[in-house]
Structures are given as structure tokens and as C-alpha cells.
Amino acid sequence: MQTTLVLLKPDCVQRNLMGEVIGRFERKGLTILGMKMLQLDDALINEHYGFLSDKPFFPSIVKYMKSSPIVAMAVKGANAVPTIRTMSGATNPVDALPGTIRGDFALSIDGNIMHASDSEETAKEELARFFKTEEIFEYERLDNVVL
Known about the structure:
single chain
């Protein structure tokens, strides 16, 4: 089992698509272990997107990521990292296949609905960035329990 980070970006929040995206994860059999809405500040944006800080488009990323709250989620499941990456679709929605989250909902590369960790190692770093240990809850899904 893997646990990974998913961020529902400002366009997802602003377009009322949060439930649709979360529902897709739940219907896939993934488990939400932690979820919170937060307004990003410069420090957290710089930490998370620091690898892009020398790019000319970085100021627009900062502006976009501060344009509304985001939703951070810790999501667990078998092969959660590659499963969620596949469900997400290509970063550029022009290249995202229909049926993927970005293929169905993203309008531009600048507003591409969500972020998903790209590896188990990155997921651990990113989860620690957005969640305290006590904000992630382990529990048994009722559909996995025999009553």
C-alpha cells in the first residue's frame, strides 16, 4: 500500500469540481486518510514549486496558487502513486486522454485541476510538507470489513 499527496488546485475549487475528483478516487477503491482546505502562502508555494523558481512563468504559478484555497489530501491504496498519476492524465490537458481527470475537466496547462506526487519518495516529502502526522488517519474502510 502506498500513500500519496493530491492537491486540488484553485481551478478545481473555483469550478466546484472537488466532489467529482474525490468521488473518482473513492470509486477506484482508494482511501482518503487526510483532507484539508488551506490558503497557500509564498513560503509553502516556494517550498513546493521551488524547482520551477528560475522559470519565467513562476510568478504566474504563485499568483494562480494563491487565487483561492486548495484542498490537500493524503490518499492511500495499492499502487496509489501510479494509479492516481494515470487517473490524472497528462499535465497539459491538450495531451490528456478523455476519461482522465485532466482530460475531462482541465481547461489549460495553467489551470490543470490537480497535483499528484510523482514517486513514493516525493510523496513522503510532500505529505510531510502539507500534513502533520496527527492529521493523517488510518482506518478500515467499511466495504473491506466483513460484518
